[in-house]
Amino acid sequence: MTQLKLNIKNLENFVKHEEIDAILPEVVAAQDILNNANGKGNDFLGWVTLPNEIDESLLASIKRDAEEIASKAQIYVVIGIGGSYLGARAVIEALQTDLDVLDKSRKNPYIIYAGHTLSEDYYSQLLNVLNNYDYALTVISKSGTTTEPAVAFRILKNHIENKYGKEEAKSRIIAITDQRKGALHDIAVKEGYKMYVIPDNVGGRYSVLTPVGLLPIAVAGYDIKKLVKGACEMKAICIQHSSVMDNPALLYAAVRNILYRKGKNIEMMVIYEPSLKYIAEWWKQLYGESEGKDGKGILPHSVTFTTDLHSMGQYIQDGERIMFETVLNVKHSNTNVNIPYDEEDADGLNYLQQRTITEINHAAVEGTTLAHVSGGVPVMKIEMPKIDETILGELIYMMEYACGVSGYMLDVNPFDQLGVEEYKHNMFHILGKKGY
Ligand code: PA5
After folding, report:
1. Residues 251 and 113 in one domain
2. Atom number of ligand 1 nearest to Cα 289
3. Could you give phi then psi for residue 165, rounded to 5 degrees?
4. Which of 146, 92, 289 is nearest to 206 (CA)?
5. Ligand 1 and 414: CB distance under 6 A
6. Is 310 a catalytic residue?
């Protein structure tokens, strides 16, 4: 039984039931292609059945490594980019807040990212920070040849070896890469690093439930078994049900394609919990890289409300009518803060006394939804009872499955990303790399 629901109540002015009925054969055809693995990119469908195939021994090994790392590192550096980084960051940051870095009661290492940027100032500061803390690292690259993480790893390998000596450094490095090939694979074998494998048939942006996501999430102290359980539960629903009313992934794929065909070319993931920012970043990569090709695809965008209501809110309410919203609506917070009573009531807020901040946030969700719908912006909501590992596992699988279905409805290959190559060629040429 899954906990996550897709609520399309606020779409009634924009999407008619008959339109959903009319698109259903296309949705089910795309689902069949995905389930039967007979469509474009079908050698990258390992993620479809992955949640049930993660064996206990892999989870136990990751847990052991996570405990070992936590016993000797205050900071864990996760090196990777794109699909080799965003899934882990999405889950880890969803389960904490930005203030976690200052929380002295934190038991697990604080996770820091590298290999996702080419900012010299970032690396300079990172090295300064790492001089003052015990740390360990993982370097993640499926191809093993991506420049950004390779540059970061070269810098940090040098630093960690200088700090701890080569032998101890070796015990603080884990490589996650291809089983057989790539520069990272070869370095890891030569240096004798512990290695985890990214399955051949799972592409980067669908890899969060492999060691790519699971190891950093476990090191950060979160329950990867629950994450996998949530994904398994959602998988059963996504694969088995062909009715949109019983299958949130199909319903989501159906309505976003109906809206796209009506000229709604931009989908905004809207979050009201800042901790979900990297869930939105992960989702943007998943949909942007999977669907944005052959001159087609909805542009995935994201906003954090209520913060961005004071910036992007104007455009959304009143600018070009080219977008729709997918709101991640979290029902319960994990903690409580009430508005205190104030004798003088100079700010006029006594009418909110003893209400929780979540109650006020929900009023913002409802008020904004009404405003945007009346302004011509279709709004659907993914109802999340709360933020925890199980629900995040459900969300991840639902989004992945819907992305496969939606990509096939668009008649693109949702599992390649040839468009990412062009900048790399230009950069290599400019840098004078041999052969470019
Ligand atoms: O989804 C993808 O395949 C990409 O975003 C990759 O994850 C990203 O380019 C990083 O590639 P690699 O893991 O080979 O370093």
Report:
1. no
2. 1
3. 85, 155
4. 289
5. no
6. yes
Note whether residue 429 is domain-resident: no
- Ligand 1 center to 198 CA (angstroms): 11
Pocket of ligand 1 contains residue 185 by CB under 6 Å:
no
Distance 288 CA to ligand 1 centre (A): 13
Exposed/middle/buried for 346, CB within 10 Å: 0-12, 13-18, 19+?
Answer: exposed
pLDDT per residue as tens, the chain (436 positions): 899 999 999 999 999 999 999 999 999 999 999 999 999 999 999 999 999 999 999 999 999 999 999 999 999 999 999 999 999 999 999 999 989 888 888 889 999 999 999 999 999 999 999 999 999 999 999 999 999 999 999 999 999 999 999 999 999 999 999 999 999 999 999 999 999 999 999 999 999 999 999 999 999 999 999 999 999 999 999 999 999 999 999 999 999 999 999 999 999 999 999 999 999 999 999 999 999 999 999 999 999 999 999 999 999 999 999 999 999 999 999 999 999 999 999 999 999 999 999 999 999 999 999 999 999 999 999 999 999 999 999 999 999 999 999 999 999 999 999 999 899 999 999 999 999 9
Question: Whole-model pTM?
Answer: 0.97
Q: Are 112 and 236 found together in one domain?
A: no
Residue 88 contacts by C-beta under 8 Å, 6 or more apart in sequence? 78, 80, 111, 208, 212, 213, 215, 216, 217
SS3 for 269? strand
The backbone torsions φ and ψ at residue 232, rounded to the nearest 5 degrees and listed phi first, read -60, -45
Query: In the block, which residue shows the tokens 């909805």?
Result: 298
What is the spatial distance between Cα 272 and Cα 270, in angstroms, rounded to a whole number?
7
Q: Is 372 a catalytic residue?
A: no
Whether the CB of 141 sits within 6 Å of ligand 1 = yes
259 lines ligand 1 (CB under 6 A): no
Catalytic residue among 17, 104, 107, 310: 310
Is 289 in the active site? yes
Claim to verify: residue 270 and residue 160 sit in the same structural domain: no
Residue 239: domain span: 5-38+226-419
